[in-house]
Amino acid sequence: MARLGELERAVMDVLWARPEPASVRAVHAALADRGLAYTTVMTVLTRLAAKNVVRRERAGRAWLYAPAATREEYVAELMLEALELTGDRGSALVRFAQSVTSDEADALRQALERGEKT
Amino acid sequence: MILVGHQLAAGAAAVAVALWLLRSRWTHAHPRAALILWQITVLTLVVSTIGALLGFGLAPYQRGLVPALFDLPPVIHELDLWHSAAVVAGLALAGWLVVNQLLCLRSTARARARHRLLLQLVARQDTGALVVDHPIAVAYCLPGRNPRIVVSAGARRLLTEAELDAVLAHERAHARERHHLVVAPFQALRRLLPGSALLTRVCATIELLVEMCADDKAARQHGREPLASALERFHANGTAGTPAGALAVADTPVQARIRRLREPDRFGFPPALPLACLLVLTALATSSTLFAIPL
């Protein structure tokens, strides 16, 4: 399970590093030094798409994959939740203490909204 | 009708204890005892309210509530409008409470799963915690079967090493003692009545007591001062940019926590505590017994 999580992370890093959507083959090639099977990479990408963190589109006979949001937007989403700034979802976490100025909170919200528009 | 009277008395006892708990200061010195008393009290209030409604509706049968309910379907036409309305209200309330708890559990589980996934993608593992690269200072625990302790890069910059250790110990206490399970039922209740100022206050009290439990645990491992100064830094950092007037709140939860760490209250259990425990336990026993007897 930990290995799968680590793979998901590595695949996301590959996708984030590319300006264009990537095929399974391209991601597999980028992770060549790990010696993964092609089908493993395909499974990981399918799982990530099912979890809505990766978008996929058809290009001819192959699927192309792209991140659904940038790394910064995901960080912003985590921080908004951690700061209990997202409606009533706050009960998901137990926090020590939080420290945020209203300017910082606005910046976080904007980071997320920018992502949703594009 | 005397059985309904018992239910009402049990409910009144629970309300009295809850009001006492809301006003008491000793709870900050003994957060664990206070939490347990809160749990029993709210449970009593819920059970006795449902018991009173069903008790009134089923009074003509002169039996325990559950046996009477089981025998009810064939003879339901014998009940007049008021009694059947009370039965329906009691059952609806009970069902509503259960369904709401389940819905809240599900939405929380989903939010946590999403949060866990994103952490896996963007956070990096460091000694004892996951680190999220963001300048805002925050530290928290994502509960679950494999709880995650998370700190932001901002929090690591804000705190000294000793303070950070104390904060991590605090979060581990949350995770190990499953504090989210203590808070969840109260938060679900609040979600039923989001406008209720009283429930909001009760929830805030419960959350504060839970924090104090974790503070105590961390203070036993790392001393009181690092934790107190960590809280102080968070507090000062967060309020620095808030507009004037927002600070006017006399005693924020964080300040209460800092104060009890710096000047630990030395007074023992208040004499009224055993009495309150006895009262509310008797009320709960009475109220729930009436669900089964008289047969």
UniProtKB/TrEMBL annotation, chain B:
<feature type="transmembrane region" description="Helical">
    <location>
        <begin position="81"/>
        <end position="105"/>
    </location>
</feature>
<keyword id="KW-0378">Hydrolase</keyword>
<keyword id="KW-0479">Metal-binding</keyword>
<feature type="transmembrane region" description="Helical">
    <location>
        <begin position="267"/>
        <end position="293"/>
    </location>
</feature>
<keyword id="KW-1133">Transmembrane helix</keyword>
<keyword id="KW-0472">Membrane</keyword>
<keyword id="KW-0482">Metalloprotease</keyword>
<dbReference type="InterPro" id="IPR052173">
    <property type="entry name" value="Beta-lactam_resp_regulator"/>
</dbReference>
<comment type="similarity">
    <text>Belongs to the peptidase M48 family.</text>
</comment>
<feature type="transmembrane region" description="Helical">
    <location>
        <begin position="6"/>
        <end position="22"/>
    </location>
</feature>
<keyword id="KW-0862">Zinc</keyword>
<protein>
    <submittedName>
        <fullName>M56 family metallopeptidase</fullName>
    </submittedName>
</protein>
<dbReference type="InterPro" id="IPR001915">
    <property type="entry name" value="Peptidase_M48"/>
</dbReference>
<feature type="transmembrane region" description="Helical">
    <location>
        <begin position="34"/>
        <end position="61"/>
    </location>
</feature>
<keyword id="KW-0645">Protease</keyword>
<keyword id="KW-0812">Transmembrane</keyword>
<dbReference type="Pfam" id="PF01435">
    <property type="entry name" value="Peptidase_M48"/>
</dbReference>
<feature type="domain" description="Peptidase M48">
    <location>
        <begin position="129"/>
        <end position="185"/>
    </location>
</feature>
